Give the backbone structure.
Amino acid sequence: MSAQTEKFETTLERLRTERDELRVKAHLARAEAAEEWDKLEDKWRELESRAKAAGREAKDASRDVGSAFETLAGELSRAYRRIRNRLH
């Protein structure tokens, strides 16, 4: 086997290994993102529900709901950003 052929084979094997590792990591990242997405959907439904409740509550009660709403909205925003960053 020539030095050139051996170099090609070595490079090909290194790339094959890297490709396989990345394929596994990508699969795991997709599964993790999907799991996180499902949890976020529950929070989204809660956020929508609280938004509707805030419109129906009295002023004092709406302050509490509003504070919880902002906290939950912030959590969702950060989580969506994490998922977006993983996908880029």
Q: What stands out?
A: The radius of gyration is 24 Å. The chain is about 95% helix and 0% strand. The helical segments are 3-56, 59-87. Residues 3-87 form one domain.
